[in-house]
Write a structure and sequence with these properties.
Layout (H helix, E strand, L loop, with lengths): L2 H7 L4 H19 L1 H17 L3 H29 L1 H18 L6 H29 L2 H12 L1 H20 L1 H22 L15 H8 L2 H31 L4 H29 L5 H20 L5 H14 L4 H12 L4 H30 L2 H22 L8
Helix pairs in contact: 2-6, 2-7, 2-8, 2-9, 3-4, 3-6, 3-8, 3-9, 4-5, 4-6, 4-16, 5-6, 5-9, 6-16, 7-12, 7-15, 8-9, 11-12, 11-15, 11-16, 11-17, 12-13, 12-14, 13-14, 13-17, 15-16, 16-17
């Protein structure tokens, strides 16, 4: 049966198909996250095989993030121009192709183009996966649906961390990369067969221009939310990169136990990604700003708590980690819904692509900046408190700059 015939048969009512779209988006998000979650797992085995230095290992991991940052805005435009179905297929296809062909690389220089392709695929796929939720779900359900979609990222991280190392040890990292890439390509095929573009969605003909980007950034709400996203992403990657080391070096936790604390934060993010959506949709009747400010404010307090509370006590450390997970690791769904609704249907794809590109800058800069501060001052405390202050300042910017109208219905 052809893809067109199968899609023609899928004429379910909006509510029924909306649920299928949420499931598809969750699966697509998880497979898209392979580009960011899987490459660091593979990198350990690549380093051993190719004899990479630590600096070269960092370049190996960062290349995909650079590709994603460079292509987010284009991905948003492609979603508007080609439609969500084709844009997601293209993005996932590039990720799968980049990873499936990575095994031919025999040196770091040979590997970088394949990693860049995978990163570009991430940037192309991310905005249209978000638009799928916005196109098929009514405003009163978008926050919760977006939160469900976002759980694909930590779920992918858990599955890759558990599955890739045994496969790479048994068969080599090249086989593992090929299997992971083929899995992403299979998801691209599934998306193409089952997903259909929402009716009545006009495709944008204009390419992103400097003027169009400037118009979006001059919108006070979009500008303030994008600033928040960049700072929150910086805090997120700093937390993921240094929490274990902080607890091991400064709180004398065994490193395995410190890993369990980080796992608690990841578990909190699963709850938070869905929970903030429910709060926004149900309790706040579709208002996004109060929930986003609450997540950011709690995150700033939790970052400061790493320093100000007795986190050498295991119970306090776990409680703080849960708070960090619910906040610093769980704001992304609210951010994406807010930007799309602020931009409006015609510019939603470009707006999401733009703000995700800005977010990626924070993701790239956050961990190196945190590490630089610790190296220069010899203190984790100053770095945690500075990131807490920056996050709090970004919350103030959202509160002042974004004058949200009554929540959508």
């Amino acid at each position: 049966m052809s893809g067109a015939t199968l899609r023609a048969k899928l004429r379910w009512p909006l509510v029924s198909y909306g649920g299928i779209v949420v499931l598809l988006a969750l699966l697509a998000q998880a497979h898209m996250a392979v580009g960011s979650q899987g490459i660091p797992v593979l990198a350990v085995f690549v380093q051993r095989d190719l004899g990479l230095t630590r600096t070269e290992l960092g370049l190996f991991v960062a290349t995909a993030q650079v590709g994603a940052c460079a292509s987010m805005l284009v991905g948003g435009w492609l979603a508007d121009a080609l439609g969500v179905r084709r844009a997601v297929m293209l993005g996932l296809g590039l990720i799968g192709l980049g990873l499936a062909t990575l095994p031919v690389a025999g040196t770091l220089a040979m590997a970088l183009p394949f990693l860049l392709v995978a990163g570009v695929g991430n940037g192309v796929a991310s905005p249209p996966i978000t638009l799928a939720i916005l196109h098929w779900l009514p405003p009163r359900l978008r926050g919760m649906a977006m939160g469900l979609k976002q759980t694909g990222v930590p779920l992918a991280g858990v599955l890759l961390a558990a599955g890739v190392p045994p496969l790479a040890e048994a068969a080599g990292w090249r086989v593992a990369a090929l299997v992971v890439g083929a899995t992403v390509l299979a998801m691209a095929t599934l998306w193409g067969l089952v997903y259909r573009d929402a009716p009545g969605r006009a495709r944008a003909e204009r390419r992103p221009t400097a003027r169009a980007v400037g118009d979006l950034l001059r919108h006070p709400g979009i500008a303030s939310v994008s600033l928040f996203a960049a700072i929150a992403a910086a805090a997120q990657f700093a937390l993921l990169s240094y929490l274990i080391l902080f607890l091991y070096e400064r709180r004398d936790f065994p490193i395995v136990f410190a890993g369990l604390v980080l796992a608690a934060a990841q578990a909190g993010s699963l709850v938070g990604r869905i929970g903030w959506g429910v709060v926004s949709d149900r309790l706040l009747r579709g208002a996004r700003k109060p929930a986003l400010c609450a997540a950011g404010g709690l995150g700033a307090l939790a970052l400061a708590a790493l320093v100000l509370l007795p986190t050498h006590l295991p119970a306090v450390a776990f409680a703080t980690a849960l708070a960090l997970g619910v906040s610093v690791l769980a704001w992304q769904a609210l951010h994406q819904v807010a930007v799309a609704e602020l931009a409006g249907a015609e510019r939603a794809g470009q707006a999401i692509g733009l703000t995700m590109a800005i977010l990626q800058v924070g993701a790239i800069v956050g961990a190196p900046l945190f590490g630089f501060l610790v190296d220069r001052t010899g203190s984790y405390d100053l770095a945690w408190l500075l990131f807490a202050a920056l996050l709090a300042a970004s919350v103030v910017a959202v509160a002042v700059g974004w004058r949200e109208q009554a929540g959508p219905t």
